[in-house]
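Worked Example 4.2. Consider the chain below.
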Amino acid sequence: MQQLFYLLKKFKYLLLFIFLEIIALIFTFQYHNYHQSKFINSANFITGGIYKKANTVSEYFFLKTENHRLAEENIKLKNLLNIKGIDYSNPTYIYKDSVEYFQQYEYSIAKVINNNYSSKNNYLTIDKGALHGISEDLGVINSSGVVGVINKVSKNYATIFSILNSGSKMNVRLKKNDHFGTMVWDGKNPNITQIVDLPRQALLKVGDTIITGGKSAIFPEGINIGIIEEIELKNNYYSKINVKLFNDMTSLGHVQIIKNFRKEERQLLELSVNNE
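Applying the procedure from the previous section yields the following structure tokens:
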């Protein structure tokens, strides 16, 4: 207490000056409209900046929830387009089954909880399994392109056979024409895959877009994969075709699982023909 009295006594003139200054400012802002408006504008500027910063921080913490909501909304829209018979990869094309529309593909959402991309045989894990309608041999994509194929399924989880796997073989084609090939991975760069079995007549050039071919019963035709980055010719055939993926396989969040309702029918038919 004695120290407090000592400080008040020592700084009494300074404290008196500050007190009188505050009184003067109060009278100035209270009885002069110009000064009052300037003070209010300055206060609004400061508090507005604070609110803006606080809102930015708040938005950051809600990004995860918002991203999940947008991913679910995207899935609903894709399923709606399929129910109406619209191919979302080619909106100008509409197909009908007799009088009623038929939904061929159904999309569901899952989150990647484990992602391997640094070995030669990579797999991913998602947080959905058999209890959520997930089964083996379903295609997996996201908004940027192809991710892989469901490999193993438990009650609540599933693993994905990544396109970054030395055993991966996917039917693809050039977007500009109907030349088909097979996409593989050499196990080196997670951003680059390779295409084999493309005929010389395909007339490739750097920058051409590669999409899913539609020959398999797993992926719909027309899903983006990447663009041709490097071409090498040897003895009049393509010895190397490198494709830069649209997808960043090292950073995957939510993915979309594709179920083809006609897959079993097609596979049974093809099996019966092969057994003849």
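The helical segments are 2-10, 12-31, 33-61, 63-83, 263-274. The chain has two domains: 2-60, 106-276. Compare this with Example 4.1 before moving on.
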